[in-house]
Amino acid sequence: MWDAQYGTRAQLLGGLVVGAPSDLSSTFYNPAWLALEKQPGILLTTKAFEASSITSDEGIGPDGEFESSDISPSPGYFGGKFKTNIDDDEVSIAYSYMQRIQFEYNASGVRVDDNVTPPADGNLWFSGEAFKNVSLSEYWGGVSFAKKIGHNIYGGVTPFGALRNHTQRAQISGNGIDSDQNFAHYYDMAQFSYWHVRVLVKAGIAFDYEPVSFGFTLTTPSLGLFGDGSVHRDNSFARMDNSSPENPEPY
Length: 251
Description:
Layout: H1 8-12, H2 26-29, E1 41-45, E2 49-56, E3 66-73, E4 77-86, E5 89-112, E6 125-150, E7 153-172, E8 176-177, E9 183-209, E10 212-219, E11 223-241, E12 249-250
Antiparallel strand pairs: 1-4, 2-3, 4-5, 5-6, 6-7, 6-8, 7-9, 8-9, 9-10, 9-11, 11-12
């Protein structure tokens, strides 16, 4: 969920740009490098695509394995930068908005016995369903400040606000009947949904000694502000005992 990269250089280098001058994506990787950018600019990334695959060897069924693959656009980034003077110091100010997470997961399974009716030897005829759907997205927006703090040394900070939306639904069913016509049914469904707003800070320091440059970035823990959510839960079980056909006993 956290493998998103922003900007062409960061995508080509797998995000390993904390210690190297980059583009406006420095607002996320290391805001200190913004102080080295001399010109105002705007960065918008929308054309990158990425392939993802999910594989599990613990699924339900004869093989117990499943796999899902997808090709979709990478999370987008939008940012801009300008310079200004504060108390006679030149300060670089930037803004950025990015999609940190876009995750969709859908799984389903249906089993139905081949026999239309239970065989006479007392075996159980069974049908069942199982479904799970997950949707998760998160967006960050922030304002960055960077300046020169020493000889070839630069510092920067980006306070971010983050919005997360998460919905998950699971469902399981059942149905069973044996050769004596005893019937049972089971149903279970759980669902939750929430949104949440929090704040965090990325602070960075950069050292530029051409041809060598390096840097460090610290990401603070998040501080939750507010949010809301709901939880839904269902349970059901039904059984019919036909040991006495004239007077079946429900449970």
